[in-house]
Amino acid sequence: MLILAFDTATDVATSALVAEGEVLGERASRAARILDDVDGLLAEAGLDRGAIEAIVVGTGPGSYTGLRMGLIMARTLAFALEVPVAGVSTLDALAASTAGAVPVIDGRRGEVFTLVNGEPGCLRPEQLRVEAGRAYVGDGAVRYRVLLEAAGAVVPPDEDSAHVPLARAHAVLARDFGPAELAEPIYLRLPDAERAIAREEARQ
Predict the structure, then answer these.
(1) What superfamily in CATH does domain 2-90+164-191 come from?
(2) What pTM value is reported for the model?
């Protein structure tokens, strides 16, 4: 089965074409370029969009705008190509990059997204319960390297691919393919616009 996988939840958007476990091509750029990347991957493989048999999309957590962009593209392509979709957590994809690694995504606003007892959570960096000697990966681990390493964490070099949610990992982790709308985003807090509205309503 030819799977198109992509994730736009973080600053580095990734995409990959995977057939029967073999990576035919992979790219990393920005969320705004993801469709160009997909078409480029297909062209390099000598295929067209009609060859895609399933789609895997990253479900976050991460940037609200990036997440929406990826999910909309997944649903649009799935509808046009009549193929099933599976969602994979960006945190799970990051964790798969390094055995035993703890994924840490920069949530901005002085917060990080990570796994807490196996579930996605939003914490302040100082709230992380760091396990000495364990690997911590993701753009959040890079941003808060000093804090993590002071607590005994192992953080790979900034340029290490372990910090990027590689789309090939999404393809491997994907389960339960079905209608595109079942791939739900993982939002751990309200987007800025909704927060502003809530504050305004509270003042009235």
Answers:
(1) ATPase, nucleotide binding domain (3.30.420.40)
(2) 0.91
